[in-house]
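Supplementary Note 3. Input sequence used for the single-chain structure prediction.
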Amino acid sequence: MSTRVVVTGAGAISSLGSDWSSVKNSLTGLENRVRYMSEWDVYPDLRTRLASPVDDFEVPSHYRKKQTRSMGRVAQMAVRATELALEAAGLVEHPIIKSGRTGIAYGSATGSSEAAVEFFSLLENQSMERINPTTYLRMMSHTAAVNLEVFFGTTGRIYTTSSACTAGSQGIGYAYEAIRSGAQTVMLTGGAEELCPTQAAVFDVVLAACVDNDNPKNVPAPFDTDRDGLVLGEGACTLILESLDHALARNATILAEVIGFGTNSDGAHLVRPQVDTMKEVMHLAIADAGIAKEDIGYLSAHATATQYGDVAEGQATHQVLGSNVPVSSIKSYMGHSLGACGAFEAWTSIMMMNEGWFAPTLNLRAVDPACGELDFIHTDVRHLDVDVVMSNNFAFGGINSSLLFRRF
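The predicted structure, written as discrete structure tokens, is reproduced below.
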């Protein structure tokens, strides 16, 4: 019989706040944290000047230099979010962490760009002057996961998900599967991302970035007829997953049960999402959970506010779940945090479910009919008593993921 898997702790670093009280106040206050990035004015060809940075993040003073020298900003935020999650779960200094029964499934789209720049001098100027022994450790795509492993001393299995916008949600899914199979008892899982103008340039050149630079409080606008593209964010979010038996034995607080996970790929186009495979990934999660689609009471949409993405996602969602499942987008508050978004959106969905309310999508004034007939939560917070929530993410490269959580 499969092991049941529960969430026993969470920690986050975000522009909305780094504890649930702050995040809740940001969501219920109906104000986004997007700002004009004057720092990017030095790049005249970059059209977008909007993002949602974590302006107040600082490396904690108790982190020793020896511990942080292999960390760029993305790893620093991942480690701090995980430390907060372990504290919330009551697992700090617990012997299981270093026993081999605790593993990691954690991702980011990329490593630290600052470290990558240190290598560029070798290619451009044939100089090794800026390269040091930690350059690659900070730059590599799996820097967040391996820095977690070393910082907390875990010796179990490790999954390093570098799948862009599904890095965090795939991490949670693979962690769930590792515990369900009996391979691990506890998993540190989630995702992180640091903000970089190179990421903005990626979306700028494919005309997917928001360029409404004079109106930061009015963007992004997922599913809106006049949506102008995505806005980048950053941060980290870690969930502690644990076998139900282990959690009950130590009298842990249980936030939710993970009941379903689906992931697949489009096999068709690197940047154009496919309705059929988006539908299929939701069907996979529902089948894995062994529930009826009617049991799902809320959907956290990926909802990047891009022209093609919102339409494909909306149509796929309508075809699977119908018109009556309430839907909203957390990205409308904090932009698209890439590798971190899947974990952060899963966490906020769980917390809102437990408290019986769901945040609306900001800036959704006129729903684009091409996005499908859905019950979009907008204008104000909606109070709902639901037992199951779904959280979906879709990434460049045609990578899709869907997670289901049940109130415990």
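The CA atoms of residues 266 and 371 lie 19 Å apart. The two ends are 20 Å apart (CA to CA).
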